[in-house]
Amino acid sequence: MKSCEVNFDGLVGPTHNYGGLSYGNVASQSNSQQSSNPKEAALQGLAKMKALMEMGFVQGVLAPQERPDVAALRNLGFAGTDAQVIEQAAKQAMPLLVASCSASSMWVANAATVSPSADTADGRVHFTAANLNCKYHRSIEHPTTSRVLGAMFADQQHFAHHAALPAVAQFGDEGAANHTRFCCDYGEAGVEFFVFGRSAFDTRYPSPQKYPARQTLEASQAVARLHGLSEDGVVFGQQNPAVIDAGVFHNDVIAVGNGEVLFYHEDAFLDTEQMLAQLQGKLGQLGGNFQSICVPRSQVGVEDAVRSYLFNSQLLTRPDGTMLLIVPEECRNNERVWQYLQGLTASGGLIREVNVFDLKQSMQNGGGPACLRLRVALNETELAAVNPGVIMTPPLYDTLTQWVDKHYRDSLRETDLADPQLLLECRTALDELTQILKLGSVYPFQIN
Length: 448
Prior knowledge:
Blueprint: E1 3-10, H1 26-30, H2 38-54, E2 59-62, H3 70-75, H4 82-92, H5 94-100, E3 112-115, E4 125-129, H6 136-139, H7 142-152, E5 159-162, E6 179-182, E7 191-196, H8 217-226, E8 234-238, H9 241-244, E9 255-258, E10 261-265, H10 272-285, E11 291-295, H11 302-308, E12 314-317, E13 323-328, H12 329-333, H13 335-346, E14 351-357, H14 360-363, E15 373-379, H15 380-385, H16 394-407, H17 420-436, H18 444-447
Parallel strand pairs: 1-2, 4-5, 7-8, 10-11, 13-14
Antiparallel strand pairs: 1-15, 3-4, 6-7, 9-10, 12-13
């Protein structure tokens, strides 16, 4: 049965703003308080989706969340009408209002961890929503994320959904941003690679000293158990604490994998040789030929990797088996990174082409091409069971661009978040979006 990997990109929400909320994310912090352009951000994301669709890749859409999250503010003691809650938060605790307005759900690589049916004990595709408990503004996402994923992958015969792990530091889970799968074919059993930043209980593993390690070993192990993965099909690797302290807050900022290939920076991991040997051995037992492409620090330093988001790219397999790398414009603007990429494609190796996209609005908030997509490997039967309303087509692209033009603002600053009209604009837009994507009632304002 034919299988494929579908990229479900997060649609940027109407409240996209630069709140500087993500400690450890250099881009997020350095662009704090700048004026954002939600409309441009959404259109840039849609342009990437359209381009991949036109290249022949199956492309999907994942809806944004309702913001500001008035219910979250009520849970923190603000009361009255929705407008009064927003007004009180703006006067008494502006940082909480900014957090409740974050459009960070656009980076759906953090939405969940996904295991395809070829790997799981019950032969279904498994989803575990990420608790994202390291950052308050993201920790409030998973209830809506679960409802949206449930509406997209509703057929229980083919799809299984798990609630987020306990929202405590010991089980910090950041989803697919720290998870990669290697396989010969998307429909065949593969090796799932979980990358963690620290262990909550085992002191043998070192931790970063400056920035928090957001993914724990214990969280990764729990997800593997929930998904029914076999020991032979799993490898756990630790991210280098030094690169976390250099601004590599997720593994997908320093490595990306697809098919049988891992593209990574020399300083990405601890015990790299042992880890690569495990991946090679376990994939080899499945008939695969694991291959790795190491980017040496002498050619691209960690600082350049973080500034350009070289590794926060999409590594895609073309029909002829060669690889295509989707990178942000910042890679072309970095002389050392661009020189490396030119040499990489000229070498005749696995990665033959690099495509550049303008994702400046997302990049300034700390998210590149890989942050914007959740990968789901599906066979033909499973793909047919996906809610068809979320699969990108030329008519859907046209409809969504018109929807963005109709509902999104051209400019948004922190002071604008106190405008109660913004909440009404967001709800109106999302109510229409659920009809476009055929999601049903997934937002709190539609349910309550």
